[in-house]
């Protein structure tokens, strides 16, 4: 998934290089690409409002739930037990796949996958391998939160889009795998007793906890990080070291992303000034990284640090509890 994300962004980067270096509008008159470019104002303006709408409302649903939870008003939250936002289209797809075999192939005994619904669970060695996966309001919210959330007229060059697109790719994939990990531990994976009672790893807390930002921080990131945080002295210690080191690499990126070039240039020049005052000035005149270089360094460390942190977090958790 990560590799695919980088390939897609890389393809877009090469498309941008083509548009800047090789595209000649005089030889491409009225073809498909030329028509798209001539409509770019309408396309970009519509994408802007769509991105702003999706980003604002998807995050706004979570903020609403956090606010209502903090005020002690669970009846006013978006949840399966209060104001429902059911993923009706996803549920329809599930139901269609579950019922399709009996209609199109009457001789079949089950659907292509238990995840669609119907049928019994599959257990291996007393552990649940697969069972029907119900979808609810929590799945609807998390499905929409990773949509586009950036718009406007700043940072619209080709390289700006590659820079921002890398963050979008990272955020989108992170939410998808976070959703999968918690959903499976909550509603699918677990143990089965001799009496056939299933005990899930996190006790089915996804539907109740993942509908607030606080729930994601408390019951997913914090609660499930205990294995990797406490891994020193165990066979999982390597993941703990990776977790710590990757956090540093990720945090290092913020030094480049949260400050402008002017800050670094002035810092460097103040150091040069101090050397001149002490008459130990070198012959060179150092310069800060350019804006493009600083962004490249920042996004590289952000992605590598974030991905390695996530990898260590997931593996330490599932090895310990699985």
TrEMBL record:
UniProt GO cellular component terms: chloroplast thylakoid membrane
Regions that span the bilayer: 43-63, 162-182, 236-258, 302-320
Keywords assigned by UniProt, alphabetized: Membrane, Transmembrane, Transmembrane helix
Originating species: Platanthera zijinensis
GO BP annotation list: photosynthesis
InterPro entries noted in UniProt: PSI_PsaA/B, PSI_PsaA/B_sf
Signal peptide residues on this chain, from the entry's feature table: none
Pfam family, one: PsaA_PsaB
Protein name from the UniProt record: Photosystem I P700 chlorophyll a apoprotein A1
